[in-house]
Amino acid sequence: QVQLVESGGGLVQPGGSLRLSCTGNGSSLDYYAIGWFREAPGNERELVAIISTRGTTDYAASVKGRFAISKDNAKNMMFLQMDSLKPADPAVYSCNARNFLQADFWGQGTQVLVSS
Predict the structure, then answer these.
(1) For residues 69 and 56, is the Cβ–Cβ distance under 8 A?
(2) Which of 2, 44, 63, 107 could form a disulfide with 6 if both were Cys (CB 3.0 to 4.6 A apart)?
(3) DSSP characters for 23-85?
């Protein structure tokens, strides 16, 4: 099974950018559908972006055109580039990997704050 370790959260001004990283240890991310989720206080966890095992991507409507998910197979990492950050984007962001048995593996979560 894969262990996921995240980095890259922090504080940014509205309109700014952040890049989140997630490293997979113990198993190749090629065997998983991978994605990013976020959870804000008082809200349920929501899907932000995914890459299927076939390489197709999908995004939540609220981030489409601003966020980009990507993957580096050689480094066994996934990324979430977040541009034009809005006051509605702050949350704990977690990377996820789901295998063919629909078992989910999660990173520890990283806080993203947007404030002027």
Answers:
(1) no
(2) 107
(3) EEESS-GGGSEEEEEEE-TTS--EEEEEE-TTS-EEE-TTTTTTEEEEEETTTTEEEEEE-S-
Asked if residues 24 and 72 have their Cβ atoms less than 8 Å apart, the reply is no
Mean pLDDT of 60-87: 97
Q: Exposed, middle or buried: residue 103 (CB in 10 Å: 0-12, 13-18, 19+)?
A: exposed
Query: Phi/psi of residue 49, each to 5°?
Result: -160, 150
Closest CA to 79 of 7, 2, 26: 7
Closest by Cα among 73, 105, 114 to 5: 105
pLDDT of residue 116: 86
Question: Which residues fall within 8 angstroms of residue 54, CB to CB, at 6 or more apart?
Answer: none
The yes-or-no verdict on residue 111 having pLDDT over 90 is: yes
**Res 46: pLDDT:** 96
